[in-house]
Amino acid sequence: MSFTVVLVGRPNVGKSTLFNRLAGKKLALVDDTPGVTRDWRSAPAHVGGLSFTVVDTAGLEDVTDDSLEARMRRQTEQALARADVALFIIDARAGITPLDRHFANLLRRGKTPVLLVANKTEGKASQPGMFESYELGLGDPIPLSAEHGEGMADLVEALLPYAPSEDEEKAEEVDDGFDPSIPIGDQPEPEEDRSKPIQIAIVGRPNVGKSTLLNSLLGEERVLTGPEAGMTRDAIAVDWEWRDRRFKLVDTAGMRRRARVDEKVEKLAVADSLRVIRMANVVVLVVDAAAILDKQDLTIARLVISEGRALVIAVNKWDTVDDRAMALRQVEDKLEAALGYIKGVKVVTISALKGHKLDTLLDGVLETYTVWNRRIPTAQLNRWIEGVLDHHPPPLVEGRRVKIRYVTQVKSRPPTFALFVNKPLDLPESYQRYLTGHLRESFDMPGVPVRLLLRKGKNPYAED
Questions:
Q1: Is 56 assigned to a binding site?
Q2: Does 464 reside within a domain?
Q3: What pLDDT, on the 0 to 100 scale, is given for residue 181?
Q4: Disordered: where is this region (predicted)?
Q5: Residue 144 annotated as binding?
Q6: Does residue 10 have a known ligand-binding role?
Q7: pLDDT at residue 272 tops 80
Q8: Residue 122 annotated as binding?
Q9: Residue 360 is part of which domain span?
């Protein structure tokens, strides 16, 4: 992106609504409840021929202690310092508040250029607030309605002076191979392209250390952490590099059992986490060493596998465990009982707070990602199926043998195979599970989903 635009303002003035409008999709959670957004998040924006990075932030609060609101404000100030221009958003219908005046004074003294945006200007009720906004000393307000998309042309015109010239854009232009218009999990897959980031979703129950893990990997306080459960609400995506590999790390909200989720904002946050899982390449399930793989952990793990994502389990707070051998046996037993059909899920013990074994975790992520991308030549698959049929042919159905003619891999991510059978409906599920497990073992594909599709047809390579 050519330049960065940050959205700031007090809570509930429409920053996240404008963020979604500029990004062209519903990425940030939006609700009437003040303070829904807590961490800053960014996305590419393309409006009126102008391309830039837009950053959504938490609502500004006039607090400087160690409370949650003060930590949210420090996160916003961090995003503001990195931006090329700030949009200070006010609610024109509510008029100018003392908090608006306070932060307008702070923004005027800062180094980042500021444009004043009067949101919610649809209808006559906004006119008094528009006139009041001149007293903030930030110039003419830009009237718009983020919810209805009105006034976007005026906003683009105001941002034009901050866009780099064509010569500057050409000098900075680098073809990194990543197309942000394509959904995260749907990048082209025939050959692994190292220029494209590996999408890693960090998921788990509330308060297991997901945000602490993200901060430890990045080496900075990128997202809020603290003893309060449910700190993260929006899924926060961060681009990152490690050992010459590009990653997109996504921190998600904690996922409790559905019966315990009653607040509307938490429901929105969990739905956002599910969206991230569906678009990820590798999902790191963070579990607490004090309650390893409880029922909800296993529910999340099964969801990840059912979505076809690669799974790595990070046992956090390992430094607090006394009997580590017993804890590891407990992990193995629970995985065998609940996920026995997915052999070899990578389990890494870490301490996110102290930064212990994070390299080991990332090595496990790369190994699992490589398996998830694996492609097996058709010739090898058909030699394999011949050996399987010689040693363990399909059972008889009504006195007749089901004939397996040929097998090929139709896609990777996850590895998916088409089995051509004369009577697909007659091949028992138990034999299909046997073939899937044998495939996984024979071609060394531990810890990832392997899918087997039954097709009716003849071997296209066989002569008539």
A1: yes
A2: no
A3: 43
A4: 165-194
A5: no
A6: yes
A7: no
A8: yes
A9: 184-372
